[in-house]
């Protein structure tokens, strides 16, 4: 169990940033529940194009690697607007990039190796990278519904 937890946490963190808005981002549930296969994903070697195609006006790129009824795991790259999820908890593990990130009512500095725990209802993101691009492993549990991204200004 202890060996699986760090991998699960890291992968979930990447996914959570990927499904930020039904209007701007693909929904987590858009992908079928696919059986897991033994896989090693070299997250540091993934380019933005490996994650998803560029979209006008959207900086975030995301690819879901695990989509199960209890959670989703994705790798995400880029900056996102400040928002919250009403029904999904989110965990992000920062792989690359450093800069600022809103968590609750505080803007904090983050960088590689940081693990961000985001309970449902917590304002987060509004990220601004100062070094490189943010790349994260995002986990959402339960999987985020397409209409569960609530933008904050």
Automatic annotation (TrEMBL):
The keyword DNA damage does not apply. SUPFAM superfamilies: RmlC-like cupins. It comes from the Bacteria. Residues 1-22 form the signal peptide. Residues 76-139 form the Cupin type-2 domain. Keywords: Signal. PANTHER family: LIGAND BINDING DOMAIN PROTEIN, PUTATIVE (AFU_ORTHOLOGUE AFUA_6G14370)-RELATED, QUERCETIN 2,3-DIOXYGENASE-RELATED. This is Cupin domain-containing protein. It comes from Xylophilus rhododendri. The lineage of its organism: Bacteria, Pseudomonadati, Pseudomonadota, Betaproteobacteria, Burkholderiales.
